[in-house]
Each structure stands twice: as C-alpha cells, then as structure tokens.
Amino acid sequence: MGMGIALTTAAKAALPVMVFDKSSTQIDRGLKLVDSLLAKDVSKGKIAEDEGRMAKARIRVISSMDDLKDCDLVVEAVAENLQVKQAIFSSLSQICSPSAILATNTSSISITKIASSASKPEMVVGLHFFNPVPVMKLVEVIAGLQTSRATLQRARSFAEACGKEVVQSADVPGFISNALLMPFLNEAIMCLEKGVATKEDIDKTLRLGMAHPMGPLQLADFIGLDTCLAIQQTLHRETGDDKYRPSVLLGRMVDAGWLGRKSAKGFYEY
Ligand code: 3HC
How many Å lie between the centroid of ligand 1 and the Cα of residue 222? Predict the structure, then answer.
C-alpha cells in the first residue's frame, strides 16, 4: 500500500515523494508495480508518456529515515503492529520538523495510542487508504483525541489533492470502514466453516446478488488473511464484542501461512 500511496501522491497530487522500506525486495516489487501501472495508463491514453515519466521521477527511494527531515507530511504504512508503529512515530518525532504532519495508514489501531509515542501528538492523524490505492476513491481521515484541527484540515486537503473523496471518523476501533467490513468478512468465513455453501457460491452471492466487485472470501484474500486477523483481533480486544471474534478457520489459515494473494494461497490459489 505504501508504494500505492507514493504513486498516487506523485501522479495525482504531483508532489515529490520519498519512499523508505527496510526491505529492498518490497521496494523492487513496488517500483515494478509503479512502472507497470504507469505504462498501462500511457498505453490506454489516460496520461501522456511525459506525465508518466514525470510521475515516476517524483518518486525517490531513500535508504535512511533520516532523509525524511524536510518532509511536510509522512505516511506510515507498515504492518498492523502497535509497537512497531510507536517505534516509528518516536523516531519520526526526532527526525522531522515540528511542523510536519505524521500520518498513519493504520486499518484499526488507535490513532491516540500511536500518537502517544510522538513528541507532538497534535500533529498525528489517521490517513486510511484502501487497496488498490490508485483505484479506490476513498480516504478515511481519523482524528485522535489530541489531533489538532489544523492537522486534520491539512490531512484532508492532502487526500483531496490525491484525487480522493474524504470521510472523517472518530478514533474508535476499526473507524467507519473496518468496524463494518470485518464482521461481514468474518461471517462469510464462518459460513464456509459451517459448510453452509462452497467458497465459490458464497462469493457469487455477494458479487451477483449484491453487485460487490469481489466476494468476501476473494476480498479477504486480497486484503491479506494475516491483516484481516490482526484487525479482527484488535477490534475484539478493544471492544470485547463477540461480533469481532475472528473465526477459528481464519486463525488456522494464517498459522498455515495461507495469507491470501501475497502467499499465492488463501481461500483460493493464485
Ligand atoms: N494496483 C493498482 N491498480 C490496479 C490494481 C492494483 N493492485 N489491480 C487492478 N488495478 C486497476 C487496473 O489496472 C484497472 O485499471 P484501468 O481501469 O485503468 O485499466 C482497474 O483497476 C480494474 O482492474 P481489472 O479490470 O483488472 O479488474 P477488476 O475490474 O476486477 O477490478 C479491483 C479490480 C479494482 C481490485 C476490483 O475487484 C475491486 O474494486 N475490488 C474490491 C477492492 C476493495 O474492496 N478494496 C478495499 C479493501 S479494504 C482496505 O483496503 C482497507 C484495509 O484497512 C483492510
């Protein structure tokens, strides 16, 4: 998602972007995706060849987070792990200017909790993009308890400059999107677990009966089963509400390393 956010920022908002990842494999994969998406847009006549080249040239890969020191806005998009995110926000507080906005693309972790590790929590905000970032039209902007109005407004303007529609959510578990999506995905997994129907028929019901672009099991594979599990665990832990309790099958699949598209096997094979 990080590279998707970088591409959208470079191509739609026409802003220079720096990208950092501790894994060079992830960077290489992301850059290949950027090349192929830009090439496709050029070949379809959606953008001129020059525009594609300029968008790519705005993306600079950096080898140290220290290079982020002059950025106006940083978007963290690491895995759903509070400790990892807090360590990053603590480092960013040392590196970045006090006027920089520190945003997180978290799917479910409290913005207020993440901000507690930053030296200026009023500058921390949730900017929740959706996958695939260049295609999905929405960004959910989330205010933590200490997020300032000015930070919220700047985050909103940034998302709009990226060509996105914005919704604003309070800092509740799962925000608007995942509080609604995760029980739905989990219910579909439990249908499969109980033998109500085949995976194909569960997905077909939602695709053809309700005009969803993907069925829920396809969508869970697309998001990543480990990500779905981590989100559901956070929601269940924070609310104690049984509707967020992850199904046993989802946990077992993650134990088996079947993580969906990214591991070539989930509910389906890829
Ligand atoms: N990155 C960028 N663009 C992509 C892409 C990717 N990974 N995959 C597909 N696209 C683009 C294609 O290039 C194509 O663009 P074009 O119209 O300009 O040619 C367009 O999307 C449509 O792609 P396809 O024709 O190949 O395939 P589909 O029509 O089946 O669409 C889809 C693919 C857009 C992924 C569609 O199936 C869809 O909308 N699925 C639902 C996605 C969704 O719900 N996402 C949200 C997940 S929840 C989330 O992210 C939040 C988190 O917190 C859990």
Answer: 9
pLDDT, tens only, 131-180: 999 999 999 999 999 999 999 999 999 999 999 999 999 999 999 999 99
| CATH superfamily of the domain spanning 177-263 | N-(1-d-carboxylethyl)-l-norvaline Dehydrogenase; domain 2 (1.10.1040.10)
ipTM summary value: 0.95
Q: What is the pLDDT of residues 223-234, one digit of tens each?
A: 999 999 999 999
Cβ-in-10-Å burial (0-12, 13-18, 19+) of 56 comes to: middle
Q: To the nearest 10°, the Cα dihedral for 97, 75, 162, 177?
A: -140
Domain boundaries, the chain: 1-170, 177-263
- Given the residues 140, 169, 186, 247, the one annotated as active site: 140
| CATH topology for the 1-170 domain | Rossmann fold (3.40.50)
